[in-house]
Amino acid sequence: MRFIDTNIFLRYLTNDDAEKAKKVFLLLKKVEDGKERVATSPLVIFELIFTLDKFYKVSRKNIGEMTAAIINLEGLVVEFKDTFIFALKLFAEKNISFADAFNVSIMKSKGITKIYSYDTDFDKIDKIERIEP
Q: How many CB atoms sit inside 10 A of residue 39's CB?
């Protein structure tokens, strides 16, 4: 097994270097077909989302679709797959930061409905109560 860094996913998703994008496509095809098994970390996925959003100005909807496709690759090992998928949906639909969306996703998975925070973005989330200390 090998590890995949953020820039590999970025070359494929942005196609900003056609030659590298093609090579990454071939690698990801092997991963999808189960011919190669790779791992990445939640931090890589966070960095991917942040970079697509802030530097490449990709729409949140497209970020969600592209990142979900990567996360769901058959031969990719990454923790919190379901958490990421739910968080990507919140990120696109509620217009909140991905970090907030991920935290809400963790909360929901643990049955937590209240959060201590001064961040009013949490007020946009159904069934989550924000409490200021």
A: 14
Residue at 88: amino acid letter: L
111 Cβ contact partners less than 8 Å away, ≥ 6 residues apart: none
What's residue 26's pLDDT?
97
Pairing of strands 38-39, 76-77: parallel
- Give the per-residue pLDDT at 77: 97
Q: How far apart are CA 81 and CA 120, in angstroms?
A: 26
pLDDT confidence of residue 25: 97
For residue 76, the cross-strand partners are 38
The DSSP symbol for 39 reads E
Taking CA atoms, 89 is separated from 7, 13, 17, 35, 128, in Å, by: 23, 19, 28, 29, 16
Q: Record the pTM.
A: 0.91
**Beta carbons within 8 Å of 127's beta carbon, 6+ residues apart:** 113
Beta-bridge mates of residue 90: none
Which amino acid, residue 9?
A: F
* Radius of gyration for the chain, computed over Cα atoms and rounded to the nearest angstrom: 16
